[in-house]
Structure formats: C-alpha cells, structure tokens
Amino acid sequence: MKIEQLYEALKKSQEAKGIYFNKDKELVFELLEALITNKDRYGYMACPCRLASGEKEKDKDIICPCEYRAPDLKEFGACFCGLYISESLNNMEIESQYIPERRPPEKIF
Hints:
The chain has helices at residues 3-15, 25-42, 56-59, 69-76, 87-90; strands spanning 19-21, 84-86. The model has no long low-confidence stretch (mean pLDDT 95). It is mainly α.
C-alpha cells in the first residue's frame, strides 16, 4: 500500500468519527510510512513510536489505532505519537500539550 492511499483511507474513516490527522502533514506522512514498514515487518501496523515485539498477541494494544488513542484524545487532544488529533485541537479550541506514555511498563519491551 502506498502512503497516499493509506492517508486518504484513514482520513476518510477517521474524520467521520471526529478524529483528524495532525496538521503537520510531514509528520503524518513519516508516521504513515512507519506504519507501512511495520505492516511489512510484522504483518500488522504497530504504532511507530512504540517498540513492537513482533508477536501480534503481545502487541495488540499498540496496533494502530492503539487502545490508548481514545483516552489520549479525550484528555490531551492528541494521541501519543501525534498522528491523530481531536476535533477540539483541530479547531484550535484547546492547546496542544505533552502526552505521557499510557502503555504499562510490563508491556514495554
């Protein structure tokens, strides 16, 4: 899959849910490229800013969109890696801020 195809597919499906790509398109394309690399490497799109084990069952919490995205968007307006942002941040109703790692230490390899 090409980056542009992934971008358009995810943009359409996520915006329908009120979730947007980061306005920094260069960052977005770097992250999408890393997702494609992880898909080729592991067979699934592991979050590009977390270290995947290569075992899908162990990594299921970080398969994009990871299970931490929703609480990150709700609390901070963006996900940990910055790929996705909330409608509030997209509309500049809130300011961007540091997003701490939510993944439990025992799951980090």
